[in-house]
Amino acid sequence: MKKTKKILQSFSFDEAKFLIRQDFVTSIERKSSEVSSFSNSIKLFCIYLFCLFISLLPMENSIEVTVFLVFLNTVCYLMYFKIKSDKEYLKNLSYSMSLYLMSQTTIMSIFLGIREGNHSILGSHYSLFALIYIVLTVLISFKRCEYIILDYLARKGVEVNLGRVTRRWHRINVKLTAGVLLLIILGTQLFRLNKWWLDDNLSPIGTISITNEWLGLFFIIFLLFIVIILIVSITMIPTLLFNVGAITDGMIVNMHSEAFRKEYDFAKEDWYGV
Asked: Which of 6, 129, 179, 251 lies 20 to 30 A from 185 at CA?
């Protein structure tokens, strides 16, 4: 996030203080942090156990991919304690970041765990496709989150050059992701209530054939495009959980950590957690 980091580093302390929400710094107070930190730790641990269980879905497809996903989830979980132990004032950032990253890993685990009968839908090149999918997911989600942060700063009055095309793409992406999530929820309920539509005797899909070669090729390309869009949209669903306020404010405070501590008169052990 070079662009984001460059913008944050350009803020003076007065500008940073103006951008920070009033309740952000005051939430670091020890009298409220002991209960909230314990509560967050318990919630995050329960979420971690669930994500860990989901990470085992690709086990029958690839042991290596499964081990990597379990390792990734564990690192995302431990990140919360690592950041908070050094910098108590970043507890909200570390919690939000760990929650988002574990959610993102969970979605990847679900996709990579899909099987058709006794075989992976990715075929004999499963490990290669899994690697490409993970790398692309990391890159796309990274750029998506960076834009969310920049858009958050822009709405606070910071001069950020996002571009009309980038803004439009992001808005479409957000609406598409939210729409796909809604379709999944509705589709699950419809499937549960109306399983009859899967009856082979009632479905005409098996009788459809395309005799024109060019039309058939166009249909396959179009279908592939729709599938890719759906995969990307579903994969980006965790970005809806990206707590841009807590994460961005935490990054801004971190740029002027000592100045904020002195401004709000916090003891070093309360502020840094030492």
From this structure: 129
User: What does the pLDDT look like over 66-76, one tens digit per residue?
Assistant: 999 999 999 99
Long-range contacts of 56-62 (CB under 8 A, 24+ apart): 56/109, 57/109, 57/110, 57/112, 57/113, 58/109, 58/112, 58/113, 58/130, 59/113, 60/115, 60/120, 61/112, 61/113, 61/115, 61/120, 61/122, 61/126, 61/130, 62/112, 62/126, 62/127, 62/130
Helices (H) and strands (E) in the chain, counts: 12, 2
Give the SS3 label for residue 119. strand
CA 249 to CA 25: how far, in whole Å?
A: 9
Question: CA 56: distance to chain centroid?
Answer: 19
Residues in the chain: 274
- Against a cut of 0.70, is the pTM above it? yes
Give the residue-averaged pLDDT of 200-222: 56
* 118 vs 105: CA distance, rounded Å: 24
For residues 157 and 54, give the distance between their C-alpha atoms in angstroms, rounded to a whole number.
41
For residue 93, the tally of other CB atoms under 10 A from its CB is: 23
Residues 18-54 as b/e (b if ≥16 CB within 10 A, e otherwise) read ebbeeebbeebeeeebeeebeebeeebeebbeebbeb
Closest CA to 241 of 98, 100, 78, 142: 100
Q: Which helix (H) or strand (E) holds 67?
A: helix 63-86
CA 126 vs CA 57, 139, 195, 210: distances in Å: 14, 20, 30, 29
The encoded tokens of residue 202 equal 């009632």
- What is the separation of C-alpha 66 from the centre of its chain, rounded to a whole number of angstroms? 19
Phi-psi category of residue 224: left, alpha or beta, with phi > 0 → left and psi -120 to 50 → alpha: alpha
* pLDDT tens per residue across span 161-181: 766 656 666 666 666 666 665
